[in-house]
Amino acid sequence: MRHFAWSAENEVFIAQIDAEHRNLFQTAEGLERSVEQNATPAETQRYLQALAVHMEDHFSHEEWLMQSVRYPLFGWHRQQHDTARRRLKLFLPLMEEGNVEAVNTFFEFLAGWLNDHTTVTDRMMAAFVRNYERAHAASALERWEARFEVSPTKRETIDPEQAGPVPDAVRLGHP
């Protein structure tokens, strides 16, 4: 039985996070496939190690992102990451020994956790991040326009040499 399948329901609509999530699902699927096909212990070990590395890299990235935008649910979100970290740490030695019951238990946990975490917790975080970016892009635009003190009734042409550089929020086309 396959536990790991990426779907549109797992999208959080932040390209980098979605790419990392797809990578986690693919690595977990590869691990599951290697166990089902009785791959060599070395191949299964490579998938286990890759999963551990991808999980930690991804969690660290998300945690940095949440801190950078002062996400108010950071502690709750990080607790969920810590739960996955603890489970991996607990099951990793058992899976490396080839304990089939441990492998199946871990797959059940990870499949449910990944789906729940991406579709609820990460979507909440991603919505906050997108709104934060929109709010700050808007305030940057407001500050930029205020520099020119343009009257609402009269729009003047501004000499680009006097205007200064275009802010990143404008140049990059942020909403």
Descriptive account of the structure:
- 73% of the residues lie in helices and 0% in strands.
- By secondary structure, it is mainly α.
- It has a single domain (10-140), classed as Four Helix Bundle (Hemerythrin (Met), subunit A) (Up-down Bundle), CATH 1.20.120.
- Helix 3 runs antiparallel to helix 4.
- The longest helix is centred in the last third of the chain and has 47 residues, at 100-146.
Annotate the secondary structure layout:
Layout: H1 15-36, H2 41-68, H3 74-96, H4 100-146, H5 160-163, H6 168-171
Helix pairs in contact: 1-2, 1-4, 2-3, 3-4
In a few lines, what is going on in this structure?
The protein is an all-alpha fold. It has helices at residues 15-36, 41-68, 74-96, 100-146, 160-163, 168-171. The longest helix is centred in the C-terminal third of the chain and has 47 residues, at 100-146.
Defining key terms:
single chain, mainly alpha, Four Helix Bundle (Hemerythrin (Met), subunit A), 6 helices, 0% strand
Give average pLDDT, whole number.
Answer: 84
Q: Cα distance, first to last residue?
A: 43 Å
Share of helical residues: over 70%
Radius of gyration: 23 Å
Describe the global form. Answer: elongated
CATH superfamily: Hemerythrin-like
Q: Write down the domain tally.
A: 1
The second-level CATH architecture is Up-down Bundle
Assembly classification:
single chain
Instruction: Work out the strand percent.
Output: under 5%
State the CATH class: Mainly Alpha
Could you give the count of β-strands?
A: 0
